Amino acid sequence: MTTSLKKRSKEIYQITLPTPFLVGPINTYLIFGDALTLVDTGPLTDEALYQMKRQLAELNLSLNDIELVVLTHHHPDHIGLVQKFLPNAKVVGHPKLKPWLEKDEKFLTNTRAYFRRFYKENGVPEQWIEEMDRINRYYMAYTERASLDTELIENDSIEGIPGWTVLETPGHAQSHISLLHEKNSTMIAGDHLIAHISSNAIVEAPYWNEQKRPKTLLQYRDALEKCKGARMIYSGHGDAIDKPKELIEKRLRAMEEKAQVFKRKMGNDPFQVFQLSKQLYPKIYEKQTALTFSETLGHIDMLEEQGEVSSYKEGNAVYYQKT
Question: N or C terminus: fewer CB in 10 A for the chain?
Fold first, then answer.
């Protein structure tokens, strides 16, 4: 019988589950601590649930044996099955995970309204705004409502898995945390760092009383720097990373190089984000509008931070221009 169950260390097992998303299979991690702990759950699909049950059974375990679920961030492939471990398990994660996990209607409505305005200001046609909204609702269907029992922030220890502490690693998601075992410099990093692909710094709306949208690529770069000391990183997708510092430095350089490519494509006239995104990604922007928009905006933010690009608003439209 084939299995995706892998023993990663004395106390860590990797359980790999299928997803219906382009990113492919997701890795979740079972930690044998004082509490039997699962890091991330996989999406809400029959296939993922079947594989989770089957691989736990190889260790003579069931869903009911899980005592603690740690969620690295709010994306559906990481939180979808959480309800299946309740009420036996406690659920912990970042405070910004809470409204997504609990499906807070006010928060979700405000977020959708923000993006409608924001995309329109940045030149996205109405048809693409509608399509991105439809896709977001499609992803939400792979989750179930659950409560967050404990909120985790930077440097928190986690009751039940002694030796592990929390690093806030925003960029790919505002709710993103990674777990660091300081004694052996091992990290479980969700989607923060992936060996075979560069994680997208996805644009998000401001949370709660925040006044401005987070500049996610700048956040992501800062969060990568925090992880250079890790000896081994277990990722949410793909292989483990045994030379994290080398990969992180490679990714940081690639962002700088890409930003300069983007700058050369800008020309000398004012432009909007969607206009540049179409130019940069002519073959995929229609199928991956949100991701290509995020990638474009992130590198514009980076250039603006460096003083190479400036922005201004004219009516209800936002424009950028090389300085």
Answer: N
